[in-house]
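Record type: ASSEMBLY
Status: queued
Input:
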Amino acid sequence: MYKSDRITQWVSHSFLIILTISCIIPFVILISSSFTSEESLILDGYSFIPKEWSFAAYEYLISNFEQIGRAYGVTVFITIIGTTASLTITSLLAYAISRRDLPYRNVFAFFVFFTLLFNGGLVPTYLVYTEIFHIKNTIWALIVPGLLMNGFNVLLMRTFFMTSIPEPVIESARMDGAGEFRTFFSIVLPLSLPILATIGLLQTIIYWNDWFNGLVYITEPSLFSIQNLLNRMLQDIQFLTSNSSNLGSNAGASAASIPTTAVQMAIAVIGVLPILIAYPFFQKYLVKGIAIGAVKG
Amino acid sequence: MSQASVKSLETEVQVVPKQKTTSKIKKLKRYLPLFIMILPGFIYLLINNYMPMAGLVIAFKDINYSVGIFASDWIGFKNFEYLFSTQDAYIITRNTILYNGGFIILNTVIALVVAIMLNEIKNKFFKSFYQSIILLPFLISMVIVSYLGLSFLSVDVGFFNKTLLPMLGLEEIAWYFEAKYWPYILTIINVWKGVGFLCVIFLAAIVGIDQEYYEAAQLDGASKIQQIWNITIPNIMPVIVMMTLLAIGRIFYSDFGLFYQVPMNSGAIYETTNVIDTYVYRGLMQLGDIGMSAAAGLYQSIVGFVLVILSNWLVRLRNKDNALF
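Status: finished
Output:
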């Protein structure tokens, strides 16, 4: 039995090591290529180890900091505002419909639930947001459509409130003369930190990674998030130069000398780096969050 | 639970007529703060979900921006007739179902194997290390994934064309122009990105299995494989079935980023990369063919709805507690 245990360990470890390597390898190529000189890239292509080191791509990105910095600013803004707003309206709605004494609570719960079953899809959504609310090329386009609140999170939070906040606690707060809002903010929310953290983390990732709203609703480069900038650079490598403010007479000359192949990889590195750095700190919560979501999926 | 609350609602409703309007006003006043709490979310769902649902009727209209969407002419099923008279409807339906069907099977099997292996790892550090790394691709946006794809597949400088294929003595391949490779590429990328998520869910279920089963099996001399086959898999079967049925309910919806970003929207490979979501997007944003796009969207919404209801009904048949509703 001892021997079979050792074999199991060996097999599992080797299998998982191969798997983890295959998960990391693409990132290694990406990062290595961004540090490779343009000549070497054109000759030998992207590879695991730079044949000829060079920081030219990053120097170029630093010289174009204005656009990239702005895109970062947009991403940070929509992530913070979006996540905060999302948590607020989700928890308010979820708490209200979690109250067993709320009149018509089943009607409201069904109103939320039905959105999980049926949806209008892209075309009507696009027309509602652009033709009625004129959201195109505003910062709200990156925050509101599709992302702000989803029925699944509302129901997840409602379940948490119903199972983890004892009714007597709410009842006694009311006896003590606390209003509904006071009860909610000073008693219910502090007891609900685990679920708030879980949904907050997922929303943060969703906002940070979102490129779809930008693709659909934003054409104005000054409102590009970092993902939209990356997206645009994927299609059009010259995008940074054609948009840089110092577009002078020497634009043609500078465009020719840009290490484009390396820059493309360098900008992707810049886009993914914050997540790679932050990941070790939140991975524990992410794993928990995914497991919670699945329990009542 | 919901039945109980329906009952309590009924008793409340019965009480109201006796005490007449004063109590009604009193009650409204008492619950007003809760209704105010509902309001922002309610309005959001109205705008973001219910207005577009109503907007699905545009599939039956000949959209004319100059007179406005609401004043455009009704044309009945014309848009659908056009859509289904083209080869496109068949291709996008086939691609959507084949890809997503394949993804469901592959992701489930691979995630299950990985979760079982992870569970066998005794060293806590390695266990959590492996799991974190396998989950990493889940965190990356599809735009970044397209860059990763490009670093392998770029025709001029990609790793495959410059390093791997010459090493094997093979010719360069114009990846973004050859449709036949994309079913494999997209499937591999989907597994790469999606297995971690499913694996976390399966592992959580495996960890929850009572250890006594394994101890008893060991005493009876059961091998590792026998334990996995006869204890682990049957015990997490409910979770596997639930996740699979949920995925089947969404089989008509594709990961737009995977099919649009990763192939770089290359027209030469639409044959194997076009799915309903990309078709709707291109119709709306690039071709300006709103009628066709709206028809395909409605087609997706309705079939999608039927599939969700159907798969939930199947879950219910098996186990009421696992059903969504």
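Annotation: The mean pLDDT of chain A is 87.
Annotation: The radius of gyration of chain A is 25 Å.
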